[in-house]
Inverse folding.
């Protein structure tokens, strides 16, 4: 499998728009049925060898332990319970409305009841249309869906490798269903007091200083309408955009701050794309950490080990 295979947004946009809404349906169930974790770590999906998983849910809310998996290798939705009950739904041929109906029926069949407070898309153009009424989005190209999972898997491992260099508090590498990106975040212990009007999502996500690293597939009609690697620092320190980035990367305005951005197609053209992306993440980290006053030397975790004797012992195992 080629590292960073082509995935131009315009070619798979219809599939992406359908898949994004399907994942929001599953994600809202995950949000409602999982114990809350700091910074919303309970909410995103994790990758599997065939696609995406909610991870197990239930148990403490009267439901059986259950999991929802989106299998992008065999192109099916799999709803399972710990008692070995399972319902499988083929993905091709479904609109958002029929996907919502089939998933609801599968949960009912398995004895799972999860009230979803707001069964509407989040931060999408049709945010005022319930999932159950969306027959417009029904495109599903199995080849592009599988390519999406393949790219996610490659970036997942790259972010895991980058995450290993930091021993401070760090999030898992996880896939956010609301924004359709995959990310990993490093935290300091410096408290950030967010105003009440910032909203519960922002107050929880950014209650500490953070530097976040990730990848998204592009935003139709947005600032970046193509796949790209990104990083940002919050709160953003003065002078961030004056800090150097590797060749081909840039600082761009985004919301009330800036993103470090390396476009996917630009990274693909590098002689060593993997190293170039890792260098990009490292440069963005240094820029934010130094300006915020993080002790990078103390927080460093070379080769993912804090054991000072690991280097001399690793050849003996």
């Amino acid at each position: 499998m080629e590292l960073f295979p082509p995935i131009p947004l315009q070619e798979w946009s219809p599939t992406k728009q359908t898949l994004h809404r399907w994942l929001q349906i599953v994600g809202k169930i995950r949000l409602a049925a999982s114990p809350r974790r700091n910074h919303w770590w309970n909410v995103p999906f994790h990758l599997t060898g065939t696609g995406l998983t909610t991870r197990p849910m239930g148990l403490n809310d009267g439901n059986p332990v259950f999991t929802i998996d989106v299998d992008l290798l065999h192109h099916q939705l799999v709803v399972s319970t710990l008692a070995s009950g399972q319902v499988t739904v083929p993905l091709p041929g479904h609109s958002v409305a029929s996907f919502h109906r089939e998933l609801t029926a599968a949960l009912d069949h398995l004895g799972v009841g999860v009230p979803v407070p707001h069964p509407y898309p989040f931060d999408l153009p049709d945010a005022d249309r319930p999932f159950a009424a969306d027959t417009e989005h029904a495109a599903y190209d199995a080849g592009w869906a599988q390519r999406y999972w393949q790219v996610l898997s490659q970036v997942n491992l790259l972010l895991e490798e980058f995450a290993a260099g930091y021993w401070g508090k760090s999030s898992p590498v996880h896939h956010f269903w609301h924004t359709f990106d995959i990310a990993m975040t490093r935290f300091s212990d410096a408290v950030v007091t967010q105003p009440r009007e910032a909203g519960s999502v922002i107050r929880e996500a950014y209650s500490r200083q953070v530097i976040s690293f990730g990848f998204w597939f592009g935003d139709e009609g947005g600032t970046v309408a193509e796949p790209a690697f990104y990083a940002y620092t919050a709160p953003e320190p003065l002078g961030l955009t004056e800090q150097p980035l590797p060749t081909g990367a840039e600082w761009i305005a985004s919301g009330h701050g800036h993103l470090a951005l390396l476009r996917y197609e630009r990274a693909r053209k590098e002689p060593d794309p993997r190293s170039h992306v890792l260098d990009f993440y490292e440069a963005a980290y240094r820029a934010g950490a130094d300006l915020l006053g993080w002790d990078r030397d103390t927080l460093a975790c070379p080769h993912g080990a804090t054991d000072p004797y690991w280097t001399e012992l690793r050849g003996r195992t």
